[in-house]
Amino acid sequence: MGYAFPEDALVYECLSSAVTAEGERPRGESLDCSSGLRWNLSNQCGQLVTVIAGGDDVIQTVPYWTDTPREPASCREQLPKQYAEDLASNLAEAQSQTITVSKTKKKGLFYVFADGQILVIDAVAGAIVKTIANPTVPFPNNCTGTPMAGSWGDSVFANNHMFSASYYRNATIGPDDGIYVINTQTQTLVQRVPSATRPVHVFYVPYLDEVWSHSDGTANFDVIDARNYSAVHEDVIAHVNISGHGKLVFNAALDSKAHASNVNEPGAFILDLETKASNGQLSFVNFTGQPISGGRVTICPGTHSLAYSKVNRHAYFECTSVRDPTNSSNILLYPGVVEIDTDDDTVVNQLPFTGHLATTPDEQFLTIVNGRERSVRIIEITPIGQPDLYFTIPLNETPGATPAFYPMSDHYVMAVPMLNTNKMAIIDFGLVLRCGANCTDPGQTVKYVDVGYQNPPGRPGALTTSRSVDAGHTFICTPAIYDQGIGCYNPINDTSIFIGGAANPIRNPARVYFAPGALAGAPENVNALFNCADAATTRGNYPTLAPVVNQTLIKSAAP
């Protein structure tokens, strides 16, 4: 499995200038890299990986260059090079796919995005400890007939702030779609950045310190400076002709290169994260009709989830289903996963599997969560030219799509909540490795824990067809809409808790995310229930939050 996270890993930053526990220092200044050792930063330095590690009381800074020719000899032995690169890539990749991985075992809080409110949960205490006040432009809700009826999108954590997407279904009340910014040290709302329509997925790019928000309405990206919450770039073009739902994949190993998906276009759009533009020589790779081994050609009407591994420097794209042109509800074919070589962006294979893609944080395995087949396929990623197939783990119910990964002492566990039961599947990659490629009993690698019902018993998909999950400190938590609460599992002591429910119901807990940090002040006696009769009926006076720093957004050039 490669390297696991150290038990005391606290913070990860990957920036163009050095960052220490004392704060940011510009290039050219000397930097303590260990006791008694100093070296100078070059103006032409490569990317610096700084891993801050230590217990709650002791913080040690361990810098390491990813750019080998300029690697300072005096710091070479501070951390194994492969470990540093693995750790940096693991954490960046986790954010890049909207795949969550526990980035810290330091204490923190879970943020629940529900109807008309954001609730703060202390899983250790098993309680709702705070509610974040509603701004003048109200949080989205699912109360029918109200102007603020809408949905929560993804959230990402950066620089002690949570960036949370929201969008609304009533287009007549003005441009209210945007990204709410929450200070996770004070648990307060500090900013709201307007965005293009339907910002569902957001991504934190740590080595640029930027948050990228994908608009399903335009199939473009809006970019936010994660240090001062200002919108720095809008409409980074990520489609050819048709807008649609999409995602972004990137990795430190690819420098500033990234790939974007679009469910309505048959390939991937290639972006330069630093210049905020498409690659001038190659902007779109068409995945349909590409010749591959065995005399086959690829089929890919559109692309959805996507993943990358530095093991073979290949990217993987989930292709959408082929539908009957005379009856779109009739699915004719699930074409599988397209695999490309990111060095030249050529199609090398189409795997005969379908489902939501995610790599394990060490990028040694590709996981494919298939709701239709009720399975998780495990594919070992090996150097080019070697077989990749591992085995399939059957599940006892329909899974939610996006998993979370949690680091144990020497391996990861993968958490996949179920849509129509009160269970969450926990796949132990320690057991996956021991079972091996020729595993005769894949079912032994998974167990189920109680987390509450997402949909009503006996009514599959009645409330939702998705279920989020996130991990942090000692818990993995997931919403339970039908049971009106949050189910949390502790993989350290193998216990589950439920927060909310009949005693203090949470209306439509759509998403949950973890952020490091302690509660500011004393816990509140929170009544979690949101009453639709109290839902806002007008837009209010926007803005009441701090203004967007850069009101004039920079337009990206067309490809």
Automatic annotation (TrEMBL):
Domain of life: Eukaryota
InterPro entries registered for this protein in UniProt: Quino_amine_DH_bsu, WD40/YVTN_repeat-like_dom_sf
Designated name of the protein: Uncharacterized protein
